[in-house]
Amino acid sequence: MVSWWLAQAGPLAPAQQLEGARRADVCILGGGFTGLWTALEIKRIEPSLDVVVVEAGLCGTGASGRNGGFAMTFWHHFTGLERACGAHEAVRLARASDAAVAGIGEFCDEHAIAAGYRRAGWFWTASNQAQVGAWENTLAAIERQGAKPFERMNPDEIAARTGSPTALAGVFEPGSATVQPALLARGLLRVARTRGVQVFECSPVVAIERAGRLTVRTASGQITADRVVVAMGAWASQLRELRRAFVIVSSDMVVTDPVADLLRRTDLRDGTSISDSRLMVHYYRPTDDGRIAFGKGGGRLAYGARIPATFSGPSPIASEVTRSMRATYPWLAPVPIAASWTGPIDRTLDGLPFFCTLGRPDFVCGAGFSGNGVGPSALGGRILASMTLGSDDEWAHCGLVRKPPSGLPPEPFRYVGGGVVRGAVARKERAEDAGRRPDAIDVGLARLAPTGLVPVD
Predict the structure, then answer these.
(1) Which residues pair with 126 in a beta bridge?
(2) Assigned domain for 202 exists
(3) Distance between CA atoms of 22 and 51, rounded to whole angstroms?
(4) In the chain, how many domains are there?
(5) Range of the domain at 100
């Protein structure tokens, strides 16, 4: 399925499928942001290596081309980073993620990638009274380490800059950016090919043979490689080591017809991104062509490693997402919806990605971006490149190189329990939106939910 973002790019070059048998120094599974950044980093460090990328569909049609295009840093996840790897390393990784977001813009400029990169910042807001101050623990933890990536604003400034009367309070991080994600993915693909990376699209992997030298099999070909990198996002759950590393939830989006005239009446700036503080987060932004793109995270839950057909194509909860958008922006009530879409998110319990080996040092993996992959995937590519090349550096040994997260129950308990928790979260957030005190049982169950795009400490 070609995503709405990708449809704006016009005709695509015909896909080159993997046919027959071949060898490679490195085979990367997944042609999205993580896989392509990894390929580019490996070629930068070791240009002579034969690097091959195998993608199930077209680059830009997976999760990397269906998200909201928020290129965010790790600063909003600082407390989770601090718990995972200590304060010093958390600061280093957060600063590195900030540099990675800036680096995406520099890369687009250098290679003439017209991906709509705008570093206009991100607002972390409260859309009801219960959410007010959700960011305070995070900001306090960061400030204890001498950093101040967020700017405090008064409620009138927040309402004006977001253009929404429901934005009651919030803080601003100027380091975040937005992109047209599918165009970025296609731009990365173009540059990777010019640097000698062989990319096979429409070549879904059917098996990985681990006995002896690693061999990746597709329906019509195979690659025997010295090293294999798994960069498949939620689809990595098919590997036995990762079946309990994360839950797969949906992210659902709608986009309006152009509303440039209405936008000009607000202070909402081109490139600004906004999220509220609910677990099933609302996230939204203006697009380059004057539309509003609005999303909802965690709307649906997949069973185990199965990613159903309803996690692709038009969103089955588009009407619900549209209602939330129009509650956020009442002036959009008469504006038609141009399109909706959906995609899977690999959400870990702590909301952070992980990078690990899968039973042997020549088989590495990066996954678990939890809905914040556009910016951190560039950093993830650097980490995976160092791990793949066996480098003894600060990336191969960074705090996010860790065992796959644990703590999730096996199926069917995870799906059943997840449904119970998701229902409690939905009831709790509906009550808070209505200004009511949520049921104590729902509050307790909601605490069991994995961290969302923005943590509620």
Answers:
(1) 169
(2) yes
(3) 12
(4) 1
(5) 4-389
Per-residue pLDDT, averaged over 222-250, amounts to 96
Neighbours of 275 (CB within 10 A): 27
Is 442 domain-assigned? no
d(CA 454, CA 125): 10
Predicted local confidence at residue 12, as pLDDT:
84
pLDDT in tens, 376-417: 999 999 999 999 999 999 999 999 999 998 888 999 999 999
Whole-number Cα distances in Å, 50 to 46, 231, 362, 426: 9, 18, 15, 49
Residue 378 belongs to some domain of the structure? yes
Condensed to tens digits (0 to 9), the pLDDT of residues 339-387 reads 999 999 999 999 999 999 999 999 999 999 999 999 999 999 999 999 9
Q: Cα separation of 30 and 27, whole Å?
A: 10
pTM over 0.85: yes
- 3-class DSSP string for the chain: CCCHHHHCCCCCCCCCCCCEEEEEEEEEECCCHHHHHHHHHHHHHCCCCCEEEECCCCCCCCHHHCCCCEECCCHHHHHHHHHHHCHHHHHHHHHHHHHHHHHHHHHHHHCCCCCCCECCCEEEEECCHHHCCCCHHHHHHHHHCCCCCCEECCHHHHHHHHCCCCCCEEEEECCCEECCHHHHHHHHHHHHHHCCCEEECCCCEEEEECCCCEEEEECCEEEEEEEEEECCHHHHHHCHHHCCCCEEEEEEEEEECCCHHHHCCCCCCCCCEEECCCCCCEEEEECCCCCEEEEEEEEEECCCCCCCHHHCCCCCCHHHHHHHHHHHCHHHCCCCEEEEEEEEEEECCCCCCEEEECCCCCEEEEECCCCCCCCHHHHHHHHHHHHHHCCCCCCCCCCCECCCCCCCCCCCHHHHHHHHHHHHHHHHHHHHHCCCCCCHHHHHHHCCCCCCCCCCC
The stretch 37-48 carries a mean pLDDT of: 98
287 falls within a domain:
yes
Per-residue pLDDT at 1 exceeds 60: no
> How is residue 343 written in tokens?
């995609």
* Biggest CA pair distance of the chain: 64
CATH code: domain of residue 56: 3.50.50.60
The residue behind tokens 């999303």 is 295
